[in-house]
Structures are given as C-alpha cells and as structure tokens.
Design brief:
Helix content is 49%, strand content 14%. With 353 residues, the protein is an alpha/beta fold. The longest helix has 23 residues, at 201-223. The radius of gyration is 20 Å and the shape is globular.
Length: 353
C-alpha cells in the first residue's frame, strides 16, 4: 500500500521534442531526475523517428546516450529513454515539457491528452507565436486549451550548443501556479543552469518569440559587414519594439517591466543576436544578397533544424497588417520586408526608427 502512496507523489517527467534545444534541456532533466527523489528516475523523450545512416535515431540515442543528429557530443544520462511512439513517450507522465517547432504541435495534442496522467502539468520551451482572426495566440494557451492543463514557460539565454558543454547560463521560468513553477524549477535548476522564476508567463513567452525577429535583423547587420555599434543600435531598437508589442497586445496580462531584465528578456536577446541559428542564417542570406532563398539557406545550414525568426516575423507582420499597426513597429516591419518582400538590405539602417 505504501508503494501505491509513493507512486502518487513521485513526478514522472517527459519531453516532447528532441531537436537542438529540446536535447539540451532533456539532458538536464535526466540528471535532475537522478538527483532528486521527488522525480521518477526514467525520463522519456519523444523523438520524431528518422533514419541516420540506415539506423533509427531512437536506437542510436538509446545505445550511445547521445542525440548524434541534433546535439552532437553531449551525453545524456542513461535514464533518458528515446521513444518514437508519442503515446508511449508521455504515458503516465505528470510533468510534460514541450520543445519543438510550434507548427508541429497541434496534431500531437489529442494523443498526448489521452496518454498523460490525470492532472498533468506542462511547460513550454517553444519559442514562437501563433495567430487567429483576433490576433496573437500564445503557444502556452494552445497547450492549456488542448490539454486542459496548467502551463508554465521556460525561455532564456540558452544557445543549446553552449549548454551541451555545461557552460554556465541562466534561464527564466514564467508560471501561473507558483507550486508548479517551483516543481519545474527543481526539474531544470542545475549547477550550469541557474533558473529564475517570475509570475508572468505572457511576458516571458513573448520575449522568447519576438527576440528571434531581432536576431534576424542582427544577422543581416553582420552579413552586410557592419560592426558592434550598428548591431547594438538594432538590438536596442528591437528591444523597444518587443516591449511595445507586449504592452499593446496584452495590456491587462500583468506583464512586469522587470521580466525584460530577466534571462528571457535582454540576456536571451543578446546571445541570440551574437550566436544562434537565426543570426547565422540571416547573415548568410545577406551575404548572398538574396541569391539563395531563406528556405535553401535553412536546409543548407541547419540540416533539419527549423528557422523560427523569419516565421515569427511573418506571423507578427500578419497581425500588424490585420490591425493596421505596421507603422508603429518599423523595425519588425523592415525585417519582414527584407525577408519576404523586395525591400533592400539598406532599409535596415535607413528606415527612420
């Protein structure tokens, strides 16, 4: 009987998404599951199955404790188990983390809802936004509605390849339910990953999505051969538009100005504008002077990873056009027009901000 009681208290962790950042995060979940008695030792990782040199990726991960495709060289603890079947991966899980390109999320939710433990809590580390006829839709809200669950969010200055070698970094967890915020903090806080928590899911999540637009602008600046002064100016202008967007679209969400000074705000913005995939692809696009499409560059440089910044720029622009607000966000609009319309790269520094 006591074992039964205990199993109610032990939290079972699962991660949906096994790309670059998802792999960096599950590596920490695996270590912490062993470190803290409150977590079941096994951490299941849902992997969208693909063949690597004729062998299924899940088999490679389970045999070598390494995601050789998306986070090469970083070892997982052996309690991280890669599973290609979604229902099996989240079966009985009480704490489910999501880290996958948001365009792939919706079709997965019915299966997840059926398989997770009743009353499961979820956390989104998905950096992006969606939209409907009324405007912005937050990914965490899609999860809350689709799974009928409390959802925290994790965003921060966390370029995955640096995390893989345990270089010190910070992250931010935004929560609605303080108890759940603390549980997820326990799951992720580690010697090389310091977790801060704030009761502001909306501000944290929007920072994580919007900064990728700024990173595209920073990459264009690099590709044009501009130096640190120009990039710093664009980061400042971008941050102002991020804050303005948050306040304009979520005036009553209780977004705290301090959130922008957390890891999810200014720190993530800085690291993404100096490292990270969005900056890298944008730089290549500018160097090629649009001779290659963004899709070609994504395929060439990212080898299966997805470019989120241009997609977010497109979604934000869709919302700004719908609300007739493009003129209020000249930087976001310029990044969009360079990326998808025929605006020249010179518009980056010639637009009056």
């Amino acid at each position: 009987h006591r074992a039964g009681c205990r199993s109610n208290r032990v939290k079972k962790l699962a991660m949906v998404g096994s790309g670059n950042f998802g792999s960096a995060l599950v590596r920490i979940l695996g270590q912490n599951a062993l470190r803290h008695d409150i977590f079941d030792n096994e951490v299941k990782l849902y992997v969208y199955e693909e063949m690597i040199d004729g062998k299924p990726l899940t088999e490679i991960i389970n045999e070598t404790n390494e995601n050789v495709k998306y986070l090469k060289g970083a070892k997982f603890t052996p309690n991280v188990k890669a599973v290609p079947d979604l229902a099996e991966a989240v079966k009985g899980a009480t704490m489910v983390c999501f880290c996958l390109p948001h365009q792939f999320l919706k079709p997965l939710m019915p299966t997840i809802k059926e398989s997770v433990a009743p009353g499961a809590k979820v956390l989104s580390a998905i950096k992006g936004i969606d939209f409907d006829d009324n405007g912005v839709v937050l990914i965490s809200d899609l999860l809350r509605q689709g799974l009928n669950a409390d959802c925290s969010v994790l965003m921060g200055a966390n370029v995955a390849n640096d995390m893989a070698s345990d270089q010190f970094c910070e992250t931010t967890i935004g929560y609605k339910d303080a108890k759940n915020g603390e549980l997820f903090k326990l799951a992720f806080d580690a010697p090389a990953l310091k977790v801060g928590t704030v009761p502001d899911t909306v501000g944290v999540e929007l920072c994580g999505a919007l900064k990728n637009i700024v990173a595209i602008g920073a990459g264009y600046s690099d590709g044009l051969g501009y130096g640190g002064n120009t990039k710093a100016a664009l980061i400042r202008i971008g941050l102002k538009e991020m804050i303005k967007f948050c306040k304009m679209f979520y005036p009553t969400a209780g977004i705290d100005d301090d959130t922008f000074l957390e890891s999810c705000g200014v720190a993530d913005l800085i690291t993404t504008c100096f490292g990270g995939r969005n900056r890298k692809c944008a730089e290549a696009y500018a160097k090629a002077n649009k001779a290659k499409t963004l899709e070609e560059i994504e395929a060439e440089i990212l080898q299966g990873q997805k470019l989120q910044g241009t997609l977010t720029a497109k979604e934000v622009n869709h919302i700004l056009k719908m609300k007739n607000l493009e003129h209020e966000f000249p930087f976001f609009t310029t990044v969009y027009k360079i990326s998808y319309e025929d605006a020249p790269f010179s518009a980056l520094t010639e637009t009056p901000y």
